[in-house]
Amino acid sequence: MADPTPTRAGTRTSGMAARSGVMFDTAVASTPASAREMLAGGVAGVLAKTAVASLGRVKLLRRTGGEPGGVGAVRTLVGIYRREGVAGLYRGNGANALRVFPSKALHFAAYERYRGWLLAATAAPSSSAVDVLAGSAAGGTALLATYPLDLARARLASGDGACTSVHGVLRAAYAEGGGVRGLYRGACPALARALPRAGIKFGAYEWLKRRLPEGYDGRADAQLACGVAAAQLASTATYPLGVVRRRMQLGLATGGVLQGIRAIAREEGVRRLYAGLGIAYVKAVPAAAIGLVAYDQMKLL
User: Is 248 exposed, middle or buried (0-12, 13-18, 19+ CB in 10 A)?
Assistant: First the structure.
């Protein structure tokens, strides 16, 4: 019969593991909450975007006219796979991950900071107005900080141009625009959409959560339903602005935001302003689910 007494080596190993666990807990506890929020938000954003990257490329091609509007999403995915292989389904996702991580990290942390400042300044309890304003400000902050990477992702994913790397695209955009201005081509329509979209999303999400029936508040499935509803509301209300933004990034549209919307509606029809909206809805559900679960798990870690 084996001796149940632990060996000296086993005791030493378990002691080292315990000390490592204590050191890890101490390091995490000493890390500022904002840094932990940024890490959790960044990782969750990358996982969510990567999971739906192939659908994102379908939406992008439809927005920019790279695929006929009548072709279904499945046929578009099959066509991309046949022409470019599996790598084609994730074309531009590397640049997207580079953009999403700092963008989502900054977005979450900025929202908490702006919300705290607004609540302190107004000395009022939380309200939808505060959530909308804080969400809008956070969305604008994150977009401006990471916009050049978003421009690079759009050009790489569309297959437009000879550049095949983020650095190459950014260098070309810098030269075309005569400096930094070229890196922010299409930023005005992007901001015009990002500000109301982020505000509506955060405001609607918090508003819906506060109105969950008793017993459902705090439940992940109920919060997920609120998040999906809020994201779809925000996307639908601001979708035409996203179409104009992508076209301006790729040099397919000029002028102001309203001019771009009018031109598309007049020349291609109002439906083109909502090209790819269906696939955007399909993306929103898994992205919201994966993002929520990943963010919660990262917070637990």
Answer: buried
Amino acid at residue number 275: A
CA distance 7 to 161: 65
Are 299 and 43 a contacting pair, CB within 8 Å? Answer: no
Q: What is the distance between the alpha carbons of residues 140 and 263, in angstroms, rounded to a whole number?
A: 26
For residues 185 and 177, is the Cβ–Cβ distance under 8 A? yes
Chain centre distance of CA 34: 19
pLDDT of 17 strictly over 90: no
Q: Which residue has the higher pLDDT, 13 or 137?
A: 137
pTM: 0.69
Tens-digit pLDDT profile for residues 70-127: 567 778 888 888 888 888 888 888 877 887 898 889 888 888 889 889 998 887 777 8
Choose among 62, 253, 234, 190: nearest CA to 262.
Answer: 253
> How far is residue 261's CA from residue 241's CA, in Å, rounded to a whole number?
8
pLDDT digits (tens, 9 = 90+) for 117-139: 999 888 777 788 999 999 999 99
Cα separation, 140 vs 137, in Å, equals 5
